[in-house]
Amino acid sequence: MTSSIWHPFTQHGLQEPVPLVTRAEGARLHTADGRAVIDAISSWWVTTHGHCHPRIMAAIAEQAGKLDQLIFAGWTHEPAEQVAEALRALMPPSLTRVFFSDSGSTSVEVALKMALGYWHWRAEDGKGARRHRIVVMDHSYHGDTIGAMSVGARGVFNRPYDPLLFDVGRIPFPAAGAEQATLDALEALCRLPDTAALIVEPLVLGSGGMLFYGAGTLKAMYEICARHGVLFIADEVMTAWGRTGTLTACEQAGVVPDILCLSKGLTGGAVPLAVTMASEAIFEAHYAADRARMFFHSSSYTANPIACAAAAANLAIWREEPVLERVSALAQKQAAWLDKLGRFCHFDNPRSLGTIAALDFKTSGETGYMSDLAPRLMAFFRERDVLLRPLGNTVYVMPPYCIGDDELAQVWDAIGEAVISF
Ligand SMILES: *Cc1c(COP(=O)(O)O)cnc(C)c1O
Q1: Which pTM value belongs to this model?
Q2: Does ligand 1 have an atom closer than 6 angstroms to the CB of 234?
C-alpha cells in the first residue's frame, strides 16, 4: 500500500512491511488480509486487560455523547475528578496531588519540572540551595521528547539531538553482583549540594533491554535519596498496572516515591492519558498568592474527558475485578514457558518478573539494537501470526492479561522455533 505516513521507529528505506490492522479483540489483532495476529507485546506495553475491553469501550462511547473536550486550566469535569479520586485511593496516601497530561514522555517532563520547581521555590523562600542536577541510571528510557531523552540513555537514538540534551549525573545499572557500585555512585552524586532528584524505572528497564534488578537495590537507592533530601521520581509508565506482578513496581520494594509517573496502562491501553502524582510538599512549594509561582505546564488536551472516562473505567476494573489474580496466573505461565523452553534449547539470561518474560538470543554476530537480528526475528514471528518486537537480541513477551493458553503457546512455540533457526 502506498502511504504518506512517516511511522515511528521505522526505517522506510528498508521497506519494512507495515501491516494494516482493522480491528482488535482480547489478545488478537485482525489484519485487512484476514490474519489474526497475537499481540504478544500489548501494542507496545499499553494494553493490560485486552483490546477493546467492553467496560472501557462503553465508558468511552458514553462520555463521547456528553462532553468531548474541556479547557483544564481553571475548569474541571466528572471523569477527571473520578480518576483523581480513584488514583488517590489506589496509590500511596502521601501522593496527594494528581497532574494530568497525555503521554509517558510528558509525564516525565512534568515530573522534572515539578522537581526543579520545588527546589527553585524553596530557595526563593530561603529554605536552602537551588538544586538542578538530575541523576539517572545507565540504559534508562523515559521517552523521546528533549527532556525525557536527556534523562535517558544516549546513543544512536538521539545522537543528532545531543547538543540540545542537558547534563545529568549517571549511575551504573545495578547488574547482579555489582549493585554496590550503583549505590556508591548514587551516594556520591547525592552528596553534591545541587542534586535535585533521581529518576528511575523501578525493577525493570524496559527499552534498555528488559533489564531486571532487585527490590532490595531499589529500596537502598530510595534510602540514599531520602537521607540526602534528593527527590525520588519513579517512572512507572511501563512497570505499573500489574506488569511486574503488583499494581506498582515500587510497592515490591516498600518504596513511596516523591513523584510518580503513570501512563500506558492507565486507560487499560485504550486511549492516551498520563498523570504525574506528587507529594504535598512538592505541591506546596508552588502554592502561594503569587501568579508567578503557579505550575507553568499544560497541553491542549490535558485531562481530556473521553480519555479520563476510559481511565475511570480501567480503575473501576482494578477495584472490582480480580486483576492481580489474572496477573499472577499469567506470571506463572510465563515463568513455566521460559523454564520449558530452557530445557530444549540454548539462550542466555532467561528472566521473568510478573507478566514480563525475556531471554537473550545467543548469536555470533552483532547483537545491538541496530543489528539486523531484531527485524529478521520480527519478520519470522510475523509469518507465524505473532507480534513480537525484539530489542537487539533480547526477545520478550509482555501480553495482555486476557491472553488464552493456546495463544500463549503459539507465542512460545514461535520463540522456540526461532531459537533453533537463528
Ligand atoms: C514508554 C515509556 C515512556 C514514554 O511514554 P510515551 O507514552 O511513549 O511517551 C516513558 N518511560 C517509560 C519507562 C516507558 O516505558
Answers
A1: 0.98
A2: no
